[in-house]
Amino acid sequence: MNKATLGLLLSPDGKVLMARKTRGDGAGNMNFPGGKPLPEEMADLRLCISRECQKEVGFVPELESLELVGKLRFYFAGVFKWEVEVFISHSWQEGQRDEGEDMKDPVWIELANIPYGDMWAGDREWLPKVLAGKKVDADIYYSADHKVLEEIVWQFVDF
User: Which of 111, 125, 117 is closest to 30 using CA atoms?
Assistant: First the structure.
């Protein structure tokens, strides 16, 4: 199974850290740090999100603060591609950002000003639910060109 992670870093003053994705699925959109786990991270995806957050935005979430809030399965033209586990953290340390190729221009954005129009259509649907305190399990179906959101099948769960 193709696994990936996303990390929502939420500040005490009501902001979330986002950046522009520069390659891969969703390139050009605003998104959250995350990525594919290394083999040694498969048993605990919190290790992956911690590494990816440091690499992409320069913050290292404390492992015990990472809360699983979503499992999103993405399909393109009906074919499964990714299962993404979404974590929220309210506690982190500042680290050294790797000026890599995946994300650029990280910025803290007030929750009331999240640029939903500059995000993938599916993100516009699940993110408000997660920010409202729900835990989501969803199958998200896009067209073959990854641009048209065709359907979302929801479940609300307690991980």
Answer: 117
Which token pair is 94? 């500042």
Where would I find the beta strands (DSSP E) of the chain? 3-9, 15-21, 30-31, 34-35, 59-61, 67-76, 79-89, 92-94, 103-110, 136-142, 149-156
Residue 49 to residue 91: CA distance in whole angstroms: 13
The sign one gets for the Cα dihedral 146, 106, 10, 5 is: positive
Distance (Å, whole) CA 137 – CA 130: 10
Average pLDDT estimate for 132-146: 93
Single pTM value for the model: 0.92
- Compute the distance between CA of residue 43 and CA of residue 142 in angstroms, rounded to an integer: 29
Domain boundary assignment for the chain: 3-156
Q: Are strands 79-89 and 3-9 parallel, antiparallel or unpaired?
A: parallel
Domain 3-156 in CATH 3.40.50.150? The answer is: no
Segment 63-105, tens digit of pLDDT:
999 999 999 999 999 999 999 999 999 999 887 776 667 888 8
